[in-house]
Each structure stands twice: as C-alpha cells, then as structure tokens.
C-alpha cells in the first residue's frame, strides 16, 4: 500500500481527542492509523511559543500548514527547473549533497536547497528514474597500508617523529605544511603508483604518477613538482615510514622542506592525505590502468578534487583557499 499523508480532517480529530485526554493508542485506532504514525505526527508538529508557553500544544490547522510547507520544500527540485539542473550537474561532477547546498549558501544564491532536500530528490521517484544515486560519493572503509611497514635502523630518526613536529602544524594555523603518501594499485599494474600530496590548511591536492617505487625516483619527482611553489608554501611534509621515503634528507637542501614521520602503523596521524586518497579512489580505483594515464589525466583529477567545495573551508574550494594563501605571500 502506498504511503498516504495525514489530512486536515485526521489532524483535527487528533487535536480534539488530545484535548479530551484520550490516549494516543486509542486515537490511532479511532482514525485508522498506526500508533507510531500518530506519535510521530504529534512530536513533529507540536506548536511551541517561547513567549507564551500557555499556547504550546497540538493544533490541527497549524500541523496541516507545517506539513504542506515541508512537502513544498521537498518538491523544490521538481518545481524549479534551473535549480534542479544545477544540482544534477554538480552531482554528476562528484559533489555530495552537503557540498552542493553549502556552496549555494557560500555564493549567496537567493534560491537555495538543503542537503536533506537533495537526498530526498535523489531517492525519490524522479531521482530514481534518473539513477542519480550512483553519483553520490562512496562511503569507503578507511584505507589501510598495503604492506606492514617497519622502520629500518635510523632511516627515520626520533627527532623527525610527528611528536616532535611543531604544534602549529597540527593545528593547521600555518600555510605550507603538507602530508604525502603513495597510492598503490593491483599487481597487474606492476610498479606503477601515484604519489598524493595535500596541503593541510587549504586541503589543496597534488597527484602525480610514478613509474616505480624507487625512493630516488620518488623524491626527485616530488621535488620537481614542489619546486615551482614559493618556499613558504612548502615548509614541511609529513609521511608514513614507508621505505619509499627513506631519501627524505634530500628535501631540506633540495627545496628547503622539512620532513616528519608518523608512528609505525599509524596512518591516521596523517589523516588529511588518507582522506584525499579515499576521495581520489573514486577516479583511481585499484585496477586503474595507471600506465595509460597522461599528465593531462592527472591534472583533470586534481582539478576535480580541488574544485569541490569543502565544509571545513567554509564551502570554499581548495583551489580558492590555496590561491588566497599564495596571494598573502606576495
């Protein structure tokens, strides 16, 4: 049986019986509704007045008006063609409903929509017929290290531990503090991998392809990617203790960048890049043909990640936040 909303007649009956002190279970039986439906209706549409608390209560007409307004909000994406097209476009770009709603608010748009309304539309009849749910971001489990990595000797000395890292880095107060990692792929892809970097304050992401996991090759590529930035924009990078990063000492004399290292088997200590990896896996799954990816392909993925508004940035995009910080350095 299809879901049927309570109507004004039923809501007036609920009001009358509540005033007569009739139990909710009896009210439900009288109007032919499930008792939980009546409980939910009374709780959802209970009227409150802070200045005149004696007016608090359930009123059928008020409840009907509130329910009608909720239905109108839910159908905003059905009624407003331009808004609907804009929302669907951003869904197809990989934005979450919360990011879409937050961006509308950040841009000061007069016509806005809540993320709940977007979800309701996606899972409603129109959204289901257009298969919009497939564009929602995946809720993947937290990425785990591909191998059990252990420090070797004093490759990663105690004075480079994350616990020795300045507190202002942890609090994201300063610009130019990065996190780095490697994204590993299926064995069929050979030694190909993708290095991921993220600036902690702005969440700006950089991805670049590696032909192997050689530490010399990786560090040379990393320095080549970071060198065009002004030195204050590349103060430090925090890595895990993967042996790929054992040539970290090249960073300081090479590009003036400090290196810090997480505890063994503690990837959550560099949570920003772990989060980036999770987002990037939507475009770079483990069976992706990495060898076929061009520099243009990698830039396109970065542009998409950096062009998505982030709640932690007040709904700015990482690109916007990163550019603002660079402007301050001039």
Automatic annotation (TrEMBL):
Q: Which residues form a coiled coil?
A: none
A GO molecular-function annotation: transposase activity
Pfam families in the record? HTH_38
Q: Does the keyword Ribosomal protein apply?
A: no
Record PROSITE patterns: INTEGRASE (PS50994)
Q: Which GO terms describe its biological process?
A: DNA integration; DNA recombination; transposition
Q: Is Nucleus given among the entry's keywords?
A: no
Chain ranges of the Integrase catalytic domain: 162-326
Gene Ontology terms: cellular component: cytosol
The protein's UniProt keywords, in alphabetical order, are:
DNA recombination, Plasmid
UniProt-recorded name of the protein: Integrase catalytic domain-containing protein
């Amino acid at each position: 049986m299809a879901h049927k909303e309570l109507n004004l007649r039923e809501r007036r009956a609920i009001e009358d019986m509540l005033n007569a002190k009739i139990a909710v279970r009896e009210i439900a039986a009288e109007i032919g509704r499930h008792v939980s439906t009546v409980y939910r209706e009374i709780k959802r549409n209970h009227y409150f007045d802070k200045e005149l608390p004696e007016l608090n209560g359930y009123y059928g007409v008020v409840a009907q008006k509130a329910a009608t307004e909720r239905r109108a909000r839910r159908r905003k994406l059905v009624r407003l063609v331009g808004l609907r097209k804009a929302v669907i476009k951003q869904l197809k770009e990989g934005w979450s409903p919360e990011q879409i709603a937050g961006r509308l608010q950040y841009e000061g748009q007069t016509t806005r929509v809540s993320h709940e309304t977007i979800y309701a539309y996606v899972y409603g009849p129109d959204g289901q017929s257009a298969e919009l749910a497939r564009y929602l971001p995946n809720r993947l489990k937290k990425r785990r290290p591909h191998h059990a990595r252990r420090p070797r000797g004093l490759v990663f000395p105690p004075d480079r531990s994350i616990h020795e890292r300045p507190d202002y880095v942890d609090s994201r107060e300063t610009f130019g503090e990065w996190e780095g990692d490697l994204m590993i792929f299926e064995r069929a892809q050979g030694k190909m991998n993708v290095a991921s970097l993220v600036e902690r304050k702005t969440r700006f992401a950089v991805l670049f392809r590696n032909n192997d996991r050689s530490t010399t090759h990786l560090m040379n590529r990393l320095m080549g990617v970071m060198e065009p930035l002004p030195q204050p924009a590349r103060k430090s990078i925090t890595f895990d203790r993967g042996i790929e990063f054992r040539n970290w000492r090249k960073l300081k004399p090479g590009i003036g960048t400090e290196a810090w290292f997480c505890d063994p088997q503690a990837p959550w200590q560099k949570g920003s890049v772990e989060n980036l990896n999770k987002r990037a896996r939507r475009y770079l799954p483990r069976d992706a043909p990495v060898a076929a990816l061009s520099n243009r392909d990698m830039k396109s993925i970065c542009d998409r990640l950096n062009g998505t508004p982030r709640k932690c940035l007040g709904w700015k995009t990482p690109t916007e936040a990163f550019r603002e910080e660079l402007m301050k350095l001039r």
